Structure formats: structure tokens, C-alpha cells
Amino acid sequence: MTTQPPQITSPAELIQLGKTAFCTAKVLLGALELRVFAVLDELPLTGPQLEERLGLHPRASRDFFDTLVALGLLVRAEGRYSNAPAAKEHLVPGKAAYVGGFLERSDRVLYPAWGDLTGALRTGKPRVTNAFREMLDDPDRRISYLAMMDALSTMLAPLIAQAFDWDTVKSYADIGGARGNLAGRVAQAHPHLSVHVFDLPPMEQPFHEHAERLGVAERATFHAGDFFADPLPEADVLTIGHVLHNWAPAERRTLIKKAYQAVNPGGALIIYDRMLADEPVDAENLVISLDMLLTTDGGSEYLAGECRDWLEEAGFTVEPARPLGEHDTLIVARKGG
Ligand SMILES: C[S@@+](CC[C@H](N)C(=O)[O-])C[C@H]1O[C@@H](n2cnc3c(N)ncnc32)[C@H](O)[C@@H]1O
Known about the structure:
Domain O-methyltransferase dimerisation: 21-91
Keywords: Methyltransferase, S-adenosyl-L-methionine, Transferase
Distance between the termini: 36 Å
GO molecular function, one term: O-methyltransferase activity
Order of helices and strands: HHEHHEEHHHHHEHEHEEHEHHEEE
Pfam family, one: Methyltransf_2
Protein name: Methyltransferase domain-containing protein
Bound molecules: S-adenosylmethionine
Number of domains: 2
């Protein structure tokens, strides 16, 4: 993790920061929308062939393809374009390590929302209508959202499976666990565990399909409900990950208090989020916090110290916060026996 903010020393760096960054982002997002990587996964193509396959005007298509080469996403050799290794692995729909679900949502939701950052800063109101539940009812958009969530939790799951002593744990529940990607992968790593996932009803069917795919269906149970209205499943260990940042502080405290009721005596609650450092050195997580302003009614990232206060207020004994992967922070909170 960066410990010092970068030193900006030249006008060129300011221009890079203020302009080039969003232009190059849109080149990648546009390439995904146009299915450049999917088309080139079939076979390498010349510029005119690729232009025709994608239905592009000739005016700037060569510049567009060459920008993708210069960004390291395509390779141009002997007059033909092909996917560079990272694009082949991560940007072709259907590949196991595809991260396009995340980027597609960036393009569709976040890019327009960031266009009116100042409006959100002036009003404190999000820039997208909060249509989360409607989105979940639309199978295509739900799958794209789940792919985005899975891309993140697949990276964190092995770390969470190791970050805690699961040997004495019998039951584990992931609250707001989406289609159970984290719970399923922790269950794969610890075959003695029975796992539970609590999430909204539209996640139930994707949960069952995903548990089958991960080979843990016999040990995995889905609990449909609203975590503000319904009781949480009781278990030795609960996790709440990438959930508290979607809500305002009062709602986070409510959820943590409910989690305390649900953790079995002697058990633990594990929280992870992209928490903020005490000093403003981590631009990535601060940007995610602004994402929360743009996309939720009351969400933001928060300090580990704030989370500790909410946990202690609920009755937990809190262990020191620790880094989880590149950007997340994990806190283990114990309930007395
Ligand atoms: C940002 S996602 C995090 C998913 C998962 N924990 C992860 O890290 O990949 C937030 C999750 O909270 C769920 N959620 C939102 N509101 C909820 C509610 N009122 N009751 C239960 N689950 C809810 C969403 O459906 C979604 O799966």
C-alpha cells in the first residue's frame, strides 16, 4: 500500500491526471462494448477486417486499435491485431478469469455518474437512481452484477480462508453474500464447514447454481431475506464483506448489532471492506468512497477505527485491523463464550 501521496512536479503530470486517465479508461470500456476482445479471440485480424467485423467508420479505427496496442491490451504483428495475454485471459467473455462484468458496470453506471461528481458533492445525493432491487429482478443485469462481485470475492476468498483459524468452526454465514462465491470458496478450502448465505430473494436461484458449480451444494444453505427486517442466520462465524460501505453509519451499526445476536457464543464476526487509512494516502480507496457517494444514498468507505467503535458498542472484543489483499482491510471481532 502507498504510504505517501505522489509528488506532482510538472504540468504534464497534471494534464495526465486531468484528462488522459479518463480517455484511456473509455478506450478500454469502449473496446469491451464493441466486443473487440471477443472477436479477436476467434482469430487475429487485419485493421480493415477488424473494422468491418465491428462495424466501425474508417476515420479513426486504426488509431483506436493502435491505442489498445499502446495500452498493452492488443498486439499488432505482421499487420494483424490479436489479444495481448492479459486481455486474452481477463477480457474475453466466458473465460473463467473474465473481469469484464466489473468493467461493463463501470462503463454503464459509473462513467456517467462520475460525469456529475460536482453535482453529487454539492447535494450529497447519488447520481444514479437507486434501482438496485429492479436490477436484481432482471436476469441479465443480475448476472453481470454477480460476475462483478465474483471477480472481487474470488481474489479475496483464498486470503480469507487462511486469515482465520477455521478448524474449530462448524458453521459459517456470509451476510450479504450474493450468490455465495466467497462462502463456497471458503467451504472448498475447509471441507468440514457447513456454510450459509443470507441475501435478497433474487439471489437464491443463482446461489444454488453456483454452489453446484463450486461442488459445495450439500454443505451450503441459502437464507432469503432483508438484513434490516429479518433475523440473520445463527452461526459460529459471520462475515460481512463489501456491504457496510453501501450504507450510512446508523445502518452499519444496526447490522453489526444484529450480527452480534446471530454469532454463537465464543464465535466471531469478520468484517472486510476497502477501509480508509488515517492519513489520506490511498487514492484508490478514496475514489471508491466517492463511488459510494455517486451510487448509494448514504454509503462511503470508513476508517478501521470507526468500525472498531461500532463493533465494541455492539459487545464484541475487537482484534487489530489487518490488510487483506491489496486494498481491503479485515477486522475480526470476537463474541464472549
Ligand atoms: C456489494 S455486494 C457484496 C457481495 C459480497 N459480500 C461480496 O463481497 O462479493 C452487497 C450485497 O448485499 C446484498 N444486499 C443489499 N441489500 C440487502 C438487504 N437489504 N438484505 C440482504 N442483502 C442485501 C446485495 O444483494 C449484495 O449481494
